[in-house]
Amino acid sequence: MASVATAGETEENQERQHQKSGHKSLLQSDALYQYILETSVYPREPETMKELREITAKHPWNIMTTSADEGQFLGMILKLINAKKTMEIGVFTGYSLLATALALPDDGKILAMDINCENYDLGLPVIKKAGVAHKIDFREGPALPVLDQLVEDPKNHGSFDFVFVDADKDNYVNYHKRLIDLVKIGGLIGYDNTLWNGSVAVSADTPMRKYVRYYRDFVLELNKTLADDPRIEICQIPVGDGITLCRRIK
Ligand SMILES: C[S@@+](CC[C@H](N)C(=O)[O-])C[C@H]1O[C@@H](n2cnc3c(N)ncnc32)[C@H](O)[C@@H]1O
């Protein structure tokens, strides 16, 4: 006979389940997250994004991909600001890149960077199939030297409508120092993972996965840097693993 869980046990069980799904759901319950996906996200997800999401699901580092609800959010933001020239740091198999490319007009451009092109190669056939590959200028290698090069030329200053940063968290503050010159006044920078699996709000001695612990201090430092920066307005969005949207105002 199955034992009946007490209210306390059920809650504890749900919490454990929720912990397991980690990263991609900061909501109160997995059921609520599933409701959002099934009601508002999956039914409106373009066929090619679904295909890329399913290919990525088989990748051993699938945890790195942008979630479908975050992809939908990015698409909406890009359309709201009429973005045309954008940048992405951290491509992986290209889910957020495809969301961006689909949201831009036909003559839109995305400068996309990743230290690894093998994962991008997995997604590229789907991006081509979606008819948006011509918008993407993919550069393999670390992003920081590319940003330094861009900053050197004043023509690039204030030229980007939107930048999505989803890469090495230990460099986010360095990226911010450069991106603030490259994004236009009124333009947006989105920093991903700023709630870092919820670890930003627990004490340092709480048990956490090794990689979560390693990057936690960098994310905490970034969040403080952004909150203190008078050149931007900010908004912390609890979608995915947390995105901080920064609107350049000066
Ligand atoms: C979380 S994943 C990006 C997920 C991607 N936005 C998506 O939608 O699937 C982080 C990516 O950053 C890349 N990366 C790490 N360090 C980097 C660096 N210094 N410059 C550029 N890319 C980097 C990694 O190779 C990895 O593909």
Q: Can you walk me through this structure?
A:
- Residues 1-24 are annotated as: Disordered.
- GO terms for molecular function: metal ion binding; O-methyltransferase activity; S-adenosylmethionine-dependent methyltransferase activity.
- InterPro entries: Cation-dep_OMT, SAM-dependent_MTases_sf, SAM_O-MeTrfase.
- Keywords: Metal-binding, Methyltransferase, S-adenosyl-L-methionine, Transferase.
- The protein has helices spanning 7-21, 30-41, 47-57, 68-80, 95-103, 118-129, 143-152, 172-182, 210-228; strands at residues 85-89, 109-114, 136-140, 160-165, 183-192, 232-237, 243-248.
- The chain has one domain (45-248): Rossmann fold (3-Layer(aba) Sandwich).
- Helix 3 (47-57) packs antiparallel against helix 6 (118-129), helix 4 runs parallel beside helix 5 and helix 7 runs parallel beside helix 8 (172-182).
- The longest helix is centred in the C-terminal third of the chain and has 19 residues, at 210-228.
- Strands 3-2-1-4-5-7-6 form a seven-stranded mixed β-sheet, with helices on both faces.
- It has 250 residues and is an alpha/beta fold.
- It binds S-adenosylmethionine (SAM).
- The site of S-adenosylmethionine has 21 residues, from helix 5 and strand 2.
